[in-house]
Amino acid sequence: MEELLSLLDEEIQDPEEECFLLFSNKPNNRDLGFVSRTESTVSVAINSQDFTIHQSPSLLASTREAGTTGAVLWKVTPLLASWLTHPSNQAAQHLLKSTSNVLELGAGTSGVLALSLASMVANYFATDQEYCLKLLRKNISGNYTEKPIRAKGGRKTKRNTEDSQTNITVLPLDWQLTESSSVPDIKDKRINLVLAADCIYNESLVDPLVDTMVDLCELNRDSNDTICLVAQELRSPDVLDAFMKAFCAKFQTWRVPDGLYRDCGDGGRGLVEGGGAVGMRRSIAISAIVRSNIGRGLLRAHIRIPFPGIRYQSTTPAKSRPLAGIRVLDLTRVLAGPYCTQILGDLGADVIKVEHATRGDDTRAWGPPFAPRKDGKPGPGESAYFLAVNRNKRSLGLDFKTTSGQAILKSLANTSDILVENYLPGTLAKYGLDYESLKAENKGLIYASITGYGQTGPYSARAGYDVMVEAEMGLMHITGERGGPPVKVGVAVTDLTTGLYTSNAILAALFSRNLTSQGQHIDMSLSDCQVATLANIASSVLVSGQRDAGRWGTAHPSIVPYEAFPTSDGSILLGGGNDRLFGILCKRIGFPEWAVDEKFVTNDKRVEHRRTLVPMIGDETRKKTTKEWLDIFEGSGMPYAAVNDVHDTLTHKHVLARGMVQEVHHEACGPVKLVNTPFKFSDAEASIRHAPPTLGQNTDDILQELGFTANQIDDLKIEGIVA
């Protein structure tokens, strides 16, 4: 079990956990279909093995709804067999052992899985309804005669017919019955692996299959772990929904890394499109959906075909990352876009940051300060600006102005759930990377564009930076001291709010995709987001028909007292936001009579007499230190706060107690401290899993997931296409 778990994501390598997880991909509208629906005999090649399979196309399953044909071979079964016996399949090495007992549910009549796998395991139990068994036995016995098999080490040998046939047992098991499933007589042998290939073709079969797999896993609850492998062509969204919900009612959700599932047939004949693990107590199951390549791969035949992912909320208490299994392709630079994608990464998404192959994100050079390098390589280190908004990402250095770079990027888009970009409108269309081009290959793609002024409107072609938008869209005019010049906010708040709005829009689009199976284009702009965040100030102008009240510093135009007041060593912000709180303030500073003064008794009166009241309060607050006033107002129920600098903020006892500063290990700079994610869920987890990457730190891994060899990657680096 530990060896198998070591192939999975690091964060879920915990064999002591009670619950493991499930991941699935949404199928497209094409079915793999039959090998042949009409032929009575078909030939099937499974890697080095060739089989002749007898079919009975006219035989209908009387126990199945709508008389579904039950005696012909669907392509998903040989695809699963090809995957399991493929030499490069690391997972299969842990699934198929000479000491294993394997039970197949819904074996049908072909016996393809039994024929392919039985020689590799101790015992193989092929089960199905009674009407299938005669033809199943015929195909098994007919194909065992002197057929070559793959032996340990990859060499070919021949079966000993007498010995090998004894390890296949054909048993009746009608798991489709509505009552509890009856586990067959297996002579007290423990089941190590349960297989089910293309057993679900309507919703009524989902629950019985899940229940039967649970029953079989339960047989081993006091012994070794049981592994269940499900390969399923899901032919309709309704069946997929039922299938996923049935599993997720008992199991948590994750995504198994793409590298676990490799090309399962020569020449791209079939691929495992998605996979995951489910389990309960000491049982674990691996589930995979097998899909055909259909020649759609770019660059190489073994590039994975994308299908929009569907994930459901689990009812189990184990914590997971809300966006685990979601892939984000990040084509953004500087702040708004990277901040958005960092939020998605904090929530568990796999974020691939595509950067210029030589200089990377612009902000890598924005310093000082830089975190100094500790790896002995030249250079100033990593800029603090870049470190702030690029955690939980993988970096791919790529020149997508080249044809090969564009093909790589399209392949990544085809395997992604979300793409976020912040180029000027029309820029990516020149390379065939616009939404309309990419959705032709990936209809579930959610494509978010962040620009200064949006995709439409008279300013859409203009570049827009935070400070320009602050100025043009009203924020700077209302920021600064009363009577002073306009000033920008101390942090690039327009960029940050745009990143926040964009991440919200993406999450909404993900939810919509679960209902419709369709992605969509999201048009986000700094200008729109800045106007939206004017909030009550904009509403006041719209309601009154008058211009805004201008700049108020830390004060509030409609509430008094509500601003920063001087202390003997700094400042303290006091918020007497209503009559009761104003009374508390007066009492704590030693002048309770102010609360009943006719000039101050109500907020509208206090606003009217602001110029009188504010200096009175300031004269008193200057008499004590900030710390003394904090102690005086402690426990009063009135809002108050010291005006801290950023250093004091990051060392504040409450900030530290909430875990808002975290030290991580950076590839080049060693230990660095980062501001943590603010998300805190009761039944999920958001955290810093990875420090911000160095430029191209993950290029090799990402390209290998697309099927590139080490030599091909080296060639791309020499040509300057990747870094």
Mean pLDDT: 79
* Low-confidence runs: 4-32, 60-69, 146-164, 250-318
CATH topology grouping of the domain at 2-291: Rossmann fold
CATH architecture annotation of the domain at 2-291: 3-Layer(aba) Sandwich
Radius of gyration: 32 Å
* Shape descriptor: elongated
Q: Going across the major beta sheet, what is the strand order?
A: 8-5-4-9-10-13-12-1-11
Helix content: 25-40%
Largest sheet: 9 strands, mixed
Distance between the termini: 36 Å
- State the name of the first-level CATH class of the domain at 2-291: Alpha Beta
Proportion of residues in β-strands: 15-25%
Total E-strand runs: 26
The CATH homologous superfamily of the domain at 2-291 is named Vaccinia Virus protein VP39
Q: How would you describe this structure to a colleague?
A:
Helix content is 30%, strand content 18%. By secondary structure, the chain is an alpha/beta fold. Among the domains are: 2-291, 3-Layer(aba) Sandwich (Rossmann fold); 327-531, Rossmann fold, CATH 3.40.50.10540. The strands form 7 sheets. A 9-stranded mixed sheet has the order 8-5-4-9-10-13-12-1-11. It is elongated and about 100 Å long. The relative contact order is 0.09. One of its GO terms (cellular component) is mitochondrion.
